[in-house]
Amino acid sequence: MKNPPYQRRLVGAKPKIGVRPVIDGRLGGIRESLEETTMAMAQQVALFFHENLRHADGTAVECIIADSCIGGVAEAAMAADKFEREGVGVSLTVTPCWCYGTETIDMNPHTPKAIWGFNGTERPGAVYLAAALAGHNQKGLPAFGIYGKDVKDTGDTTIPEDVQVKLLRFAKAGLAVASMRGKSYLSIGSVSMGIAGSIVDAGFFESFLGMRTEYVDSMEVLRRIEQGIFDQDEFEKAISWIKENCQEGTDFNPGDKQKSRNQKDSDWGFVAKMTIIIRDLMIGNPQLKAMGYGEEALGHNAIASGFQGQRQWTDFLPNGDFSEAILNSSFDWNGIRQPFVVATENDSLNGVSMLFGHLLSNTAQIFADVRTYWSPEAVERVTGYKLEGVAKDGFLHLINSGSCTLDGTGQQHQEGKPAMKPFWEISEREAQECLAATTWYPATLEYFRGGGYSSQFLTKGGMPVTMSRVNLIKGLGPVLQIAEGWTIDLPEEVNNTLDQRTDKTWPTTWFVPRLTGRGAFRDTYAVMANWGSNHGSISYGHIGADLITLASMLRIPVCMHNITEENIFRPSAWAAFGMEAEGADYRACQSYGTLY
């Protein structure tokens, strides 16, 4: 079963894409000759989006086309009225001809917007594109310009490949912006061990993302456990599933400190209840209303959350590793379903990075410490092994205390290669293989005095991945870091030697960033040295260009990336802020200010 019926997760309709066919308004021959072609262009794009985009919950993206072509301000207002009624969150204007620039543009300041001006010689669609973008820029309403490289014939109904890439990049990022608006980040607990990202900044969420911040003391989880405020039938189902699918590993704690078998079984029950309750806190559960808990049944409309855990909770009670790992995965005792976004140690900024990656890729996200840079020299000294291939310049050890998505095992496959897939593409067999590749070790008590269970697995090599992180800088605001690269395999003996130098009960991902030979990507050490926090979010696929487009919509400058120049897509106004692209990004974001 995929996405069980009770998991209608969030309040509010999913955002739609509004398509605006814009036309030369002169009647008496010109407009009439263009009506059919212009509307067909809009219908063609709407079909393209419908066939190639899905929301993170697996549903197809719906497109709304204006009722008529837009030749002037009255028809622009009619389209805006329809889009507001229909819940449009992203706006695309298309035209094959000249139209009246500022009279026909979309003036909604909160809607990401782009214009595709057809590259043809019969009618000057590109001239309108330039005029309309100038109007957008002069009015302070950034818009993306889409213009195909090759001249096409007027009757050509195909969408050029280069235009397709930009349409999808814009639409994915725009839908992510609209999907976050009005939703919540739920902070369960407070600040974990002085980690700055867990100082949840309401101003950032509200002004940059249009999100609420909700705060619940960790005690609420304990209250619901002790008072039985969870679905008892689901709990029994969860325990049965855990016994069948979650293999328990060796207890590496000193013998005199190990918990008894009864205590360990009790911990399994405790962490299963935690998992159900954290989910219920995020999205609610109608079953609780039937039990007489109407307020608790509502949840907090949280599209992402974080659990403080350390130390006040974990010094006393079982840790959150199991709950975070299962919630962040694409499956649990209810079957295959959309992963949640739950940040370890309540690191809300890494939670935001995970949310960005999830909304852009529709896949589960790896949460990890950016723990260690291993140089080729250090690897050879410790293991006697000389690195080669993609890892020849060294690699990063990504590892955290067992909270990582089980999708990160790499046991899913695309075209015979390891992958992390959208949940609707995951087979039951692949979910089982992810579980089989994971061992749940009794928590290391010197870290987690209250016990619990930590997952341990080794991520398969050969997956293209993108590591990202949002950081808040005083006097500047948020910035985004991006590093595309690959997971790698190491020889078994080398892996074991390196892995067991840290906690062997935690999941490991070996990561090699793609180097450019300059700046923060001159070598692998520089990537580690320039990373802005102890955590990173890792998404399957090379989605760095999509992240850059999203960041520009949110007015978050990108301070570090290894994306090739030709793949960077930002609003046209960014070109007016200087010829050095990254400095221009900072100036544009500062000039336009926050989106909300």
UniProtKB/TrEMBL annotation:
UniProt: Mn(2+) binding residues: 345, 369, 535
Record's keyword annotation contains Lyase = no
Q: Where in the cell is it found?
A: Cytoplasm
GO molecular function terms noted in the UniProt entry: arabinose isomerase activity; L-fucose isomerase activity; manganese ion binding
- What reaction is this protein's catalytic activity? L-fucose = L-fuculose
Specify the L-fucose isomerase C-terminal domain's residue ranges.
Answer: 398-561
* Gene Ontology cellular component annotations, sorted alphabetically: cytoplasm
According to UniProt, this protein's pathway is: Carbohydrate degradation; L-fucose degradation; L-lactaldehyde and glycerone phosphate from L-fucose: step 1/3
Identify the catalytic residues: 345, 369
- Superkingdom as given in the UniProt entry: Bacteria
Q: Which NCBIfam families match?
A: fucI, PRK10991.1
Q: Which family does it belong to?
A: Belongs to the L-fucose isomerase family.
Query: Its function?
Result: Converts the aldose L-fucose into the corresponding ketose L-fuculose.
Name of the protein this chain belongs to = L-fucose isomerase
* Taxonomic source organism: Rufibacter tibetensis
